[in-house]
Amino acid sequence: MVAKNQEExxxxxxxxxxxxxxxxxxxxxxxxxxxxxxxxxxxxxxFRFPAILLIGNTGVGKSTLGNWLLGYHGDxxxxxxxxxxxxxxxxxxxxxxxxxxxxxxxxxxPGLFDxxxxxxxxxxxxxxxxxxxxxxxxxxxxxxxxxxxxxxxIDRQIQAIKGFLGEKALDHILIAFTHVNMDQTMDRxxxxxxxxxxxxxxxxxxxxxxxxxxxxxxxTLEDDIVYTNVYEAKDIIESFxxxxxxxxxxxxxxxREEAEEAARIKAQEERLRACEEEISRLRNIxxxxxxxxEAENQCFSLDTIVTLEGGKKIEMSEVxxxxxxxxxxxxxxxxxxxVYLIAHVDKDKQAEFLxxxxxxxxxxxxxxxLTSEHHLFVNDSFDYARNIxxxxxxxxILYKDELIPVRVTxxxxxIRKGYIGIFTRTGTIIADDVLCSCYSxxxxxxxxxxxxxxxxxxxxxxxxxxxxxxxxxxYLKFLYNxxxxxxxxx
Length: 490
Ligand SMILES: Nc1nc2c(ncn2[C@@H]2O[C@H](COP(=O)(O)OP(=O)(O)OP(=O)(O)O)[C@@H](O)[C@H]2O)c(=O)[nH]1
Ligand SMILES: [Mg+2]
Fold this sequence. Notes:
Layout: H1 6-19, H2 28-31, E1 51-56, H3 62-69, E2 93-99, E3 102-108, H4 118-134, E4 139-147, H5 154-165, E5 173-178, H6 182-186, H7 188-193, H8 197-205, E6 210-212, H9 224-239, H10 246-294, E7 305-307, E8 313-315, E9 324-328, E10 334-359, E11 365-370, E12 374-378, E13 381-384, E14 394-399, E15 402-424, E16 428-431, E17 434-440, H11 446-452, H12 454-462, H13 474-489
Parallel strand pairs: 1-3, 1-4, 4-5, 5-6
Antiparallel strand pairs: 2-3, 7-8, 9-10, 10-11, 10-15, 12-13, 12-17, 14-15, 16-17
Helix pairs in contact: 1-9
Bound molecules: guanosine-5'-triphosphate and magnesium ion (MG).
Guanosine-5'-triphosphate binds at residues 58-64, 75, 81-83, 87-89, 110-111, 178-179, 213, 215-217.
């Protein structure tokens, strides 16, 4: 691959001078696509020959290498070169390059990856994509120009190339090192020794297709090594059996766009899911708050057990007006009293209940679920359920047909679905074996509330109530509102 002797080098020199495009030997057909003007190359027609792309970071020496390949001194050819912090080649430039009678469009591109601001980097990529799309005869070689000192970045840059051009592009890549010292430029073996293991691995992967682009400050056209290196480059360019095509590029582009679209949709779905979770969390909180706010007027959990006359035990949800349920009469004895009103019932709404746990004398446990403002018999009188203290408060339970006092072992809060309020003629009820009042919300003056309820007890003697609604019975609502107005006034 490398030219070995002076004679060979002379032949190559002649060959280069012949093959390289110049205005003197160009024909009119080639002129419009040959050595390009600096005008906007995006307007150029599709290239008529396979392309050779010079790509790499800004300022690495792409244009310089292009000039060397075209047979000019690196700093003095058709491609503009300049030592500058700002990008010099701003739009793709083209020149015709002939190697062994085969014509190629040598394309010098704007710098790709080191432009700090993303917008300019995007523009550079868009321009490159546009250029590639003009390469209707495919891309014979992608010359990736890299500063030797930046060799350690090669991984990242190669990943970027793979992402943009696709894996297949690596089969068409030729690495050109720039900013290489004199010894390394003159002797490939010296250069090789300077590679770290990562670089060696990578170069092995691409079949060691690499060359050194001579430093224009150290070498002139008279130096044989310039021709040797240019010859090597051309040899490699010719060695690719087939070109990288626009089809390959567009397949990669479509795949990339699809992947980006899929990632965008996924991100959107994730955002949506997060929103839904947040909404459901807030709904839950709102539901619990609503349940707490309504707790004042609710009474028992629907599955609370009551005992019917005759001993049958049923859930409160099954109780109907006219049923006689266990309660306590004025003589403090267990008796069965008629249910004359179902004050309200709801099977779906959530409510916050207090779960009151107790232990019976035989060691078995029981519990009652009622809302915090409901009244039950605690420590010798009726009181709010919320005033029960575990291990301290005593409640009355029905045990072996008798009411006996037991201590509450635990009180906890539970959100449950559904509730019911049942009124008996005695104003009491034994719920889950616990002696409770039928009343709630107002201060727990059992006798006074019982007295206030007399009118409705009286009317239902003659006309059975068929009220069965989630709203509290209108009479109770009226009483409750009045109570609120009166207490609010003080
Ligand atoms: N030391 C050294 N300088 C070089 C080498 N190659 C090019 N240069 C100099 O680096 C500067 C930039 O070179 P260019 O060829 O314009 O770089 P480029 O990659 O085309 O830059 P942009 O068009 O801006 O992307 C010029 O002054 C060159 O003379 C090299 O191998 N060694
Ligand atoms: Mg340039």
